[in-house]
Amino acid sequence: MTSLDLPIIEAAALLNELTELRAAVQHEGETIYQTWAAQLARPEFAPSAHNLACYLAFRKHDLMPLQLHLMTWGLSSFQHNQSRVLTSLDTVLATLHSIVQQQPRPQPIPSAFFHGYQLLEANARTVLGPEPPDRRVRIMVTLPTDAATNYDLVLGMLERGMNCARINCAHDSPDVWAQMLANLRRACTQIGRTCKLFMDLGGPKVRTGEISFGERRRLFPGDTILLTRTPPVANPAYPFQVSCTLPAVLDQVQVGQSVWFDDGKIGTVVEQIVPEGLLLLIVSARPEGARLRPEKGINFPDTVLNVTPLTEKDLRDLDFVVQHADMVGYSFVQSARDIALLQESIRQRLASMPLRAPLAIVAKIETRPAVANIPEMIVQAAGQQPFAVMIARGDLAVEVGFEHLHEMQEQILSICEAAHIPVIMATQVLENLAKRGTPSRAEVTDAAFAQRAECVMLNKGSFMLQTVSVLSRMLAALEAHQYKTLAGLREARIWGELGPVEPQEPA
What we know:
Elements (H helix, E strand, L loop, with lengths): L10 H26 L9 H13 L5 H9 L12 H17 L8 H4 L1 H14 L9 E5 L8 H10 L3 E5 L5 H18 L4 E5 L7 E5 L11 E5 L12 E4 L13 E4 L4 E9 L2 E8 L13 E2 L12 H13 L2 E4 L5 H15 L9 E6 L2 H5 L1 H9 L4 E6 H8 L4 H14 L4 E4 L4 H6 L4 H9 L5 E4 L5 H16 L2 E2 L2 E2 L20
Parallel strand pairs: 1-2, 1-15, 2-3, 3-11, 5-6, 11-12, 12-13, 13-14, 14-15
Antiparallel strand pairs: 4-6, 5-9, 7-8, 7-10, 8-9, 16-17
Helix pairs in contact: 1-2, 1-4, 7-8, 7-17, 9-10, 10-12
């Protein structure tokens, strides 16, 4: 952070500096916007795309010294300007001009100042459905297989606050999905509520396949694993073997690059490339050892994988999705070209359904290239149809490093707010509560952070009804004094209203 021992800067100097910054942002933003203009088939997205372009131009500058100087004058430090870049600059400029010239200058009207929030809320309603009566943030719940046969489970989740239902296409089958959907529609009719349906394509998820472990079942740092292209074959030189469900990716990995298993529970480095696959040295695992099972995710954070994000199964599943879903989740999407591929696949299927409402795309951000390419993906997608972003924190944490996850979340939330695009926060939200019935203190705080998004996703668990209720109450309570990053200073009733609380004398 810039040193807080700052020289005093007069208002006139600040006015000049800010005037130059505003001109630069407008010019650079306009240049970026013009490169996108041909992709904006939806006129209603044009103002958002222009603001996004200005935000990218704005963030090219080192703003910290200016922020601190503005704070000493009691002016905005631009911490909440994502949704209204030029308007925020104009507001501060008007105030500085009034100070320097000793005469008032018209301020932007409030409706212009908050127009970005209104666009974001409108886009959230289009993609995620209407706001619940007592909170802004929606709750999405992953439907378990039981939802196909247990109508009361689906009804209970709706009654407790579920606003969007998620079907993971990596599991179950179209017949089971149809039964889930029938129960969902029946429950919506019974209680007189709507619930958006989100269907999540599995994508080319790289997972563990067959496993061969000999006598010792736990893995420790210093052990080696052979990651194979084909099912393991007993070999005393390689006692620990795991097959890869997408063997083609092994040809893209180099010696020295890292490979992680099971959402980061086991970390390895490629020690050698052998005919069977990759020989991996374990460098990170629990001290008591870690177990590795089939169907666990494999991440290659140091490798830019050249993999098509739409598998043959995804294309088959898409036939069902375009007929029934409101949103389609796009796994392993990494570029605007990937977005265009899904758009064309949807367009082909909708050619015979001219009256169908537009299908919203939800891009799951789970890799480094996806983070880097978010602006172009937003323009490609939202320029043509409703769009949202999902922060898939499990894979993303492994890809960027756990120590950088919070920073990445902040950056994704900011850039989506600049484009007035809704965000879904996913992965391990209240996971202990959902699976064991008791939340950890850390995940309660984490769920509170999720209020920054427009939707929070819960995964499966035996205590899902309780979890939906708890999350709904938490979000409603938080909303009384916070909107995204903006914390409102309502009356503080915790301190002093009844006087100091004295401990009781022991009996």
